[in-house]
Amino acid sequence: MRKVAMDIEAPPLQSVLIAAAQKGGPAHADLRHVTRRWWSVARLWWRCPTERRTAWKYTAASMGLSLPYVALLLWISYVQNVRSVERAAMHSSLSEKQQAGFFAAVRDFVVIIVVAAPLFALTDYVDSCLAVAWRRWLTQHMIRCYFAHHSYYALKLDPQALDNPDQRICEDVRNYVNASVMLTVSVMRKLLNCLAFTGVLWSLAPGLAVFLVFYAVGGTWITAAGFGRRLMRLTYSVLQREADLRFALVRVRENAESIAFYSGDQRESELAGARLARTIATIFGKVRWEAFLSLWQNAYAYATILLPSLLLCRRYFAGEIRYGDISQAAFAFHTIEGALSYIVTHLSDISQLAAQTDRLEALLAALVQQAEGLPGGVHRRPSVDGSIAVQDLTLTTPRGEQTVCRGLTLALAPGQSLLIVGPSGVGKTSLMRAMAGLWSAGSGTIAAPADMFFLPQRPYMPLGSLREQLTFPDSYAGTAAKGTLADLPGEGGGSAARRHSGSGGGDSDSGEEDEGALPARAVGSGSGRRLPVVRSGPAAAGYRRVASGKGLAASAAVAGAAEAPDSARLGASAASDAELRELLATVCLPSLLPRQAGGAQGFRVVGGLDAEADWAHMLSLGEQQRVSFARLLHHKPEVAFLDEATSALDTVTERALYTHLQRHCHCYISIAHRKQLAAFHTHVLEATGDGTWVVDEAGNYLRALGSGD
Ligand SMILES: Nc1ncnc2c1ncn2[C@@H]1O[C@H](COP(=O)(O)OP(=O)(O)OP(=O)(O)O)[C@@H](O)[C@H]1O
After folding, report:
1. Whose CA is nearest to atom 7 of ligand 1?
2. How far apart are CA 141 and CA 148, in angstroms?
3. Is the CB of 433 under 6 A from ligand 1?
């Protein structure tokens, strides 16, 4: 009756064994390496200081229920034996019209059902709770690591290195956890089954027990060697190709309008079709191998069906043993065979888990690497007086293909502002990326205050209400109502509002070392100079390598920084409705409110600041830039950075916004192609295109511009 439930199990310890036969697969696995990789992911939960109590509680409950579970199986086998001796098995009693025997068998059956039904339901429930709790924590942990230190951004810089991190976080975690729970639970029960039934089988037919061991070991070896490595490689490819296909479709959704303008439907459809074809081809390859595997598994299983009866029938006919002994021996034989042949019968699941383990381990390793910082990084330190100082900065693109600036030194004091101009592609945005801490390849030092706010070239419109557009990236009361990581039980909240993309360093404040904590990046202290000066020349070497910890194991010391809020970034976003309405008027967007109230199609909530819409698609680029500017005025940072933040606006609106900026922000740096914007800055930094940068006072620059120099 419980055969199905007993057999729904899956992967890891076995994946380790399988992996031994999988050298050359994506995991390059041998027994030790796969074991270590699976455990390096699994242990994060059981060793997390805030979670291990929950983890062990569920694990103990699940394992504890295995004892009555196995006891019940033993009882069933005993009852079968006794009843067959009494000739009181239900069907034989019926056929022989033995009323008493029939009702005795029915009574046994009812008792078994009464005990088994709640026991099996309870074990399933506890196993599911274990899986859900583990998945909740692991996904939450991955999300935090993903967002710590701008790792999501850094991973995107080198997409070849790690494909589809989002799918790994969502689907691979789910499948990994479910399979792992089923495996660990089933291995435990199989082990107990083995122990319990080996005694039974040995007492009835020791020869059968010895044969079984050799049979299972041989079968496992053939399965692992013949199918293991190939199936794991194919499973890994299927996961990757499915993720690639979905990514292509997500990109179409994100860029629907541009594709439609280009009439790129055909090309995008072909691309999706090609990815689908590759996915299907890989799946077919896997299906073929699974068919061979199934053939082998069936032959393996059916070959032993009659074995106990065949080996014991001679003794039965000689009257040495009873009929019940044969059925009890067969029951014990097949129970032990199921345990010892686990790899043979579950190879597909095991391969799946091995591939998922590989993908998760790679993601965690990449996140840890991001947290530790890239080698040869530009050193960042906080500025205490609100000034910005760039010292001997040589900056390259992330993988070092191109040097965008060499030996740059400049300082900007509070009250000063800088306009960066230069030809397209010369490295203006890259300089801003370095100041934001997004790029750190190269050498030199950047000192900047913690309170900075960046307006990127392409405004980001988050999902949510108009209020959230204006106060982004702050959280606000409504966010909690929608549910955040902080609402999940078991860990502290992590929904700290982020004010800017500054240093990228979170302060780890966890007292106890957390296996999953990312190492915090180091920052020092220092001060800037009063006048903006710029020098270009040979860079003095000298950068400071950022903090440390090694590998995933050490990385398991990784969640504190990811979870710790950076107090300097916490935004007080509790702006009143009146303030937000005034902001909209300031950035020349008062029309947004009545438009929402009109309830245009697509609004989920109609009217006011809490109206929700697909803002990125509904607003024009100029409107998005104005919303973005409103964020800046709302946050009032110490230093503001604007990267062509008004490029889509008419000059009248642009001048109006810069007038507000001058009034509200004491220090700002802009990038623009409209050189007349120099009038709103105190200094101008011009990239000449040959790697040198020249700074001048804005007045001089404008005069030179006016005279046509
Ligand atoms: N992720 C990246 N990897 C490699 N190279 C990059 C990357 N991002 C930008 N680059 C290169 O770095 C150089 C500088 O780019 P950057 O965006 O800083 O130029 P820019 O001066 O801001 O240009 P524009 O005025 O057109 O915005 C360009 O040649 C660009 O191709």
Report:
1. 397
2. 10
3. no
